[in-house]
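Loading example: each entry is read as two labelled lines plus one structure line.
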Amino acid sequence: MGGGILALALSILVAVTLGPADVSLVNVRDVLLNHLGLADIPVRLSKNAIVWEERLPRALVAAACGAGLGLCGVIMQSLLRNPLADPFVLGISSGASTGAVIVGVLGVGGAALGLSGGAFIGSLVAFGLVLLLARLSGGNNDRIILAGVASTQLFSALTSFFIFAFADSDETRGVMFWLLGSLEGVRWDDVTLCAVVVFCGTAVCLHFAYVLDAFSFGDDVAASLGISVAKVRLLLLVVTAIITATLVSVAGAIGFVGLVLPHAARFLVGPRHSRLIPATALMGAVFMVWVDAVSRVAFAPTPLPVGVGTALVGVPAFIVILSRRRRTQ
Amino acid sequence: MTLRADSVTWNRGGALVVDGVTVTPEQGETVGLLGPNGSGKSSLLRLLNGVVRPTAGVVTLDGDDLAAVRRKEIARAVAVVSQHADTDVDITVRDVVRLGRIPHRGTFGGNPTADDAAVAAALAHTGLTSKADRLWHRLSGGEKQRVQIARALAQEPRELLLDEPTNHLDIHHQLELLALVTRLPVTSVIALHDLNLAAMFCDTVIVLKEGRVVAGGTPAEVLTAELIAQVYNVRAEVLIDQAKGRLSILFEPGPIPVPTH
């Protein structure tokens, strides 16, 4: 735990030094101390701007995204008892795309709403639809996943429809790039928003860690252990929906982290949620900070959408974990 | 005062699954729920556990309507071992048993000393102490059932509800498991298919057919050739071993001869 926090802090510091403009760890330290009001060390203005206005907020949002998506993945997988569940299983990312497209292409809501606002509203609408569908069909875990799949298809189709019918190629490119997950141009406002949502979400989920343990043998066993299954499930689904919708609205749909990081963390610390939740959040944060740093640097000056980077870096790592796990069994 | 069902009826989507059933187990007793597939045994157990609410009648715990008791309170008194509890999670035997301590948690966590003691006692009682660190998915079917019973024991319940716990077990493990359950100092209600096991281990049995109680009493009173023919539509011979004071039921193949009037 302490080690994880240290690794995260170091990762962020090192990631901030990476990039086309030359910044050293000493520069980063000086800038940080200056801004925290602990020192007044002269630093070149350009370096200060690169560290404080560009790379640091970006690394922090990356960390929040990794932690939040990993956390949501753990919750969804345990709650729905499905190893393939991820933060987007409730149709949230496709709802976000539709919302973003409606704003970005059709111009509904305009500048006041922005792509992010459209995405946030779209994802919550999709989530509401999934809950409604799941409830109409009986409300068990498989139905929730089916409802999520159905709603994902619906919103993907709507997104394509709006793009084909109304968008010109520039608009399409802008929206698509954003949808693949992008941390370009995040600001301190975004850092605050993501950090608050992810921190509160983690606190709620940690409080319910033992409840998630109780779900490991299914709803009936959980109920017989004194859990109000329907109430707790709704609460935790809403928490994951809010976290996911917030992160998607800031950074787009970053795939893979929420699906795979929980498995990697389970491999390291076991299935008990009081350990699994913090472990996944920290691993997700470190992972995303590095993936973002690499996708920023590797193809510079052309930025690679970070969602592409997560899969390209993550899949080989996951294969290594899976095969090692098989050997130890 | 314990857990009891008073003329409970459960109507699931228009079908009367349980129809006016009364169950009043004595403290410490082992009650067998018998009856063919679909006779309402599992549904009755779900009603007794408060997972579903009866459409009519009332289930009470210490005299209070179960619908008004908090789930956590129910879980401190009533533990359930269901038919096919399974998981994909790589969880150890000890951690499964520790799940039984969840109802005893306060708002800010459990009492680690009491939890460890209860888990150790439950493992010892079920003979699983040496297997505490084994992984769940590596256990045999019989061991898995025993782990679920240990988990239920860690709940320190007064009542234990078991839904066909001997399913898929070989005869050795069937006998061992029921001997374990009847030794426990709790009231148990067990849904069973095997009439001979019921005769061997239950103090009283209740026979259900189409959601209704058709007979209740000691195994010797209830399990007669006539009743078995009526409920299961099977020919049987019931032998009484006077020396051991026990029934054994032999089944005959072929249809029941139509009675001639």
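The mean pLDDT of chain B is 89.
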